[in-house]
Design a protein that fits this description.
alpha+beta; 4-stranded mixed sheet; two-stranded antiparallel sheet; elongated; ubiquitin-protein transferase activity
């Protein structure tokens, strides 16, 4: 409760209109709401705070949660109470606490409802030391405020401290007064964790872990997050990362299943895909391959570096053909034009050489070749463009059959792309079957 017995909504200064105020006041509230109704709990992400509170406007929570006191950088700490069972911190304003309230006996609502409030996390001694210092792992009795071991070699450490009384000064796993923390929260099985680490140290060995994808054993530092997304705790080896995200290569069919994490099925972080995706993160229109994965098979054009439609999916078609160094039709057309242009320039250079040598016969021959190539080049450019017989609009067929329906408003003429003639919609397929080499002419007649 704020100043003058008002809530935070009534004290807020960023509500611009009466309609917005009414929306906020009535959000997630109804006459049917009781003490047993469900609520949305969030936790402040500031490690030194980590207090939990209820959020009503869930749709506006577009960033990591941060409580009012951390957001406004209040000099006063949040009025939190620690649950004696789960040790979570709950914001509980003093004005709302009953007179008989005891902080030491507080049990939070989630514990009262019987929810599971602990979670398992994998950690390392290095991560624990970064947050809890090295005091729980090793202590110098002669100088307890200084960490005896750094990144220097043991020889350097012992030489600096001196060999006399060294074993008496150094204490491994000294007694501690509180539990270790991870991301600001207490570790409930601190004693078990330290006992496991003591056994490893006493046995002079380290523990290997399994790659979650190939199940081979590796040192923990050799494994990497499978996708880098928060909440996905699977770790896999570098070979599996490259084999999974790098399975899509330039000029080949795009395997959309390998674009997502093999475990949580979310898209990997850009950093992960850029490191192991063999350039896949820079492919243009890659999102279309995911959107249309149920209807089209896409391939990675090796020329324009774009995901393009290769073949339409069909359950009766079977596996698509293997392709290598695949190029989309537009790139093939462009390369052909470039080849013809290069040939034209070469012929022009030969013509110039012939003129310089005053070789009339050679000049005439080269001139004829040049005109032929230019005519072929011009024909290749214009062959794909034809005029609509209804509105004279120039049209180019990109894909599909020869039945063209003019898209110009007010026209919509049905005509044959092969000969340019207009036909009624019911007769055009029969015409294409008989006039242009189709196979089902009789079927069109019978169907009519």
């Amino acid at each position: 409760m704020g100043r003058g017995g008002k809530c935070g909504i009534c004290l807020a200064t960023d509500i611009e209109s009466t309609e917005e105020y009414e929306r906020v006041i009535n959000l997630q509230v109804s006459k049917e709401t009781t003490a047993a109704s469900h609520a949305t709990w969030v936790e402040c992400h500031v490690p030194s705070c980590r207090t939990q509170y209820v959020v009503y406007d869930i749709g506006s929570l577009n960033v990591r949660a941060k409580c009012h006191y951390c957001r406004s950088r209040s000099k006063e700490p949040a009025p939190m109470v620690e649950c004696k069972q789960c040790l979570n911190r709950i914001i509980y304003p003093v004005a709302h606490r009953p007179p008989s309230f005891l902080t030491s006996e507080f049990v939070c609502p989630p514990c009262t409802m019987g929810h599971e409030l602990t979670t398992e996390l994998e950690t390392t001694a290095r991560k624990l030391a970064a947050e809890n210092t090295m005091s729980w792992l090793v202590c110098d009795v002669g100088n307890p405020d200084k960490v005896p071991f750094t990144n220097r070699s043991p020889f350097h450490t012992i030489s600096t401290m001196g060999t006399k009384g060294f074993m008496d000064r150094i204490k491994l796993f000294p007694p501690r007064n509180s539990a270790l923390t991870q991301r600001g929260k207490p570790i409930r099985n601190t004693d078990t964790l330290i006992t496991t680490l003591q056994d490893l140290v006493a046995g002079r060995k380290t523990e290997k872990v399994y790659c979650s994808l190939c199940f081979s054993t590796f040192w923990p530092a050799s494994l990497n997050p499978a996708c880098g997304r928060r909440g996905c705790l699977q770790r896999i080896c570098t070979g599996c990362l490259r084999g999974w995200y790098g399975s899509n290569t330039s000029g080949c069919i795009i395997n959309t299943a390998a674009l997502a994490c093999p475990f949580c099925r979310r898209l990997p972080t850009p950093r992960t895909l850029a490191k192991y995706g063999m350039g896949l993160h820079a492919v243009r229109d890659l999102h279309r391959a995911l959107v249309d994965k149920g209807t089209w098979i896409y391939a990675w054009c090796s020329e324009c570096f774009t995901a393009k439609e290769l073949v339409e999916r069909s359950c009766a078609r079977g596996m698509p053909p293997e392709v290598t160094d695949w190029k989309c039709p537009r790139c093939i057309e462009r390369l052909e034009v470039e080849r013809l242009e290069a040939e034209r320039r070469a012929i022009q250079q030969a013509l110039d050489d012939a003129r310089a040598a005053e070789d009339l016969e050679r000049q005439q021959d080269v001139e004829g070749r040049r005109r032929a190539v230019e005519e072929t080049l011009e024909a290749s450019r214009l062959a794909a463009i034809k005029r609509c017989p209804g509105c004279d609009t120039m049209c180019e067929r990109v894909a599909g059959c020869g039945h063209i329906t003019c898209p110009i408003p007010g026209c919509h003429t049905d005509w044959c792309y092969f000969c340019g003639k207009e036909f009624p919609q019911g007769a055009i397929y029969k015409h294409m079957s008989y006039a242009h080499g189709g196979m089902y002419g009789d079927d069109w007649v019978n169907s009519e």
